[in-house]
Design goal:
The chain is an alpha/beta fold. The chain is built from 15 helices and 11 strands. It has 2 domains: 226 residues; 49 residues, no CATH class.
């Protein structure tokens, strides 16, 4: 498989002409392969499989089929039904509310001179931590799945705000040419204020999000994306998160070939099926480790 066009990707990134999408693999960069995860005393972030296994053990999940045990959406649904949504949110907050070390990819994004729209489907705060460490301002927008009184809205933290504003998605007024925005499409832990935690994690959550996504995603984000390339980092087509994202972007991706707007996915060890599915969506996939990709982009940008 050929190498990514590192120089071209960097040129587009530094001009603000790329929308990075961060999946689960982006949060696991730098974690030693042999390091085990302890859900009761987490020193690192869990993989989706590890988190599913932990919730399955805590709820006495009835299936012993490995495919079921590794399905985070299915296990989360069972946990929520049996133990309660409040307890699920508390467990997730306890697991995620730690000073985990952000990685080289997060540092790279924070060092890019242009303002960006960064879409993350992870629940952690590594991107925000990297921007804070670099003293680079950003606005934060989160989909409020657990705030039923804010259904039909998004939560918006303008830079420096301690409390969010609930705003109808199509009324969100941010000048994306002048501000970097981190958009947590499937919710996030809010470490300093657990009442604002939101998680799209159960099967029912994904179904509801899919049914509402045309009105749940701010229109200005759609408009912004239509003239920019996409860069998918740390995703697998086996992920629920990615399937929802691709469904959300299906019309935009369908026009990529005609408008000569390239999009790329960086994924280690994709299957032949995944390669075919990415390409069907006008996304060129490259079999490159994320840490190697990040290092090469940093070399191109000398940052």
């Amino acid at each position: 498989m050929q190498e990514p066009p590192y120089g071209a990707i960097w040129d587009l990134l530094k001009d603000g002409s790329v929308v990075p999408f961060l999946g689960a693999g982006a949060s696991l960069m730098g974690r030693p392969a042999a390091q085990t995860w302890d859900g009761d005393h987490p020193a690192v972030l869990p993989s989706g499989v590890e988190l599913a296994g932990y919730l399955a053990a805590k709820s006495e999940f009835p299936s012993k089929d490995r495919r079921d045990l590794e399905d985070l959406a299915k296990v989360s649904s069972y946990f929520s039904d049996l133990v309660g949504r409040r307890r699920l949110r508390q467990r997730l907050h306890d697991i995620l509310n730690h000073d985990f070390q952000f990685g080289a990819l997060h540092q790279l994004l924070a060092a890019i001179p242009a303002n960006l729209l960064i879409v993350a489907t992870n629940y952690d705060t590594l991107v925000e931590q990297a921007f804070q460490a670099a003293d680079k301002p950003y606005d934060l927008v989160i989909y409020p799945n657990d705030q039923k009184d804010l259904a039909g809205s998004v939560l918006w933290w303008p830079h420096g705000a301690e409390q969010p504003r609930g705003v109808e998605p199509n009324l969100l007024d941010i000048d994306l040419a002048k501000k970097t925005v981190i958009y947590k499409m499937h919710g996030s832990v809010v470490r300093q204020a657990a009442q604002w935690d939101n998680f799209v994690i159960t099967e029912e959550d994904y179904v509801e999000f899919l049914s509402r996504m045309s009105e749940a995603v701010p229109r200005i984000f759609y408009s912004y994306c239509e003239s920019r390339s996409f860069l998918f980092l740390g995703y697998s087509l086996r992920d629920w998160n990615l399937r929802v994202v691709l469904r959300n972007l299906s019309r935009t991706l369908a026009r990529r070939g005609d408008e000569e707007l390239p999009s790329w996915a960086i994924q280690r060890g994709p299957s032949e099926l995944e390669i075919a599915l990415w390409r069907k969506r006008n996304v060129e996939i490259f079999d490159v480790p994320l840490d190697e990709f990040t290092a090469r982009i940093r070399q191109e940008g000398r940052i």
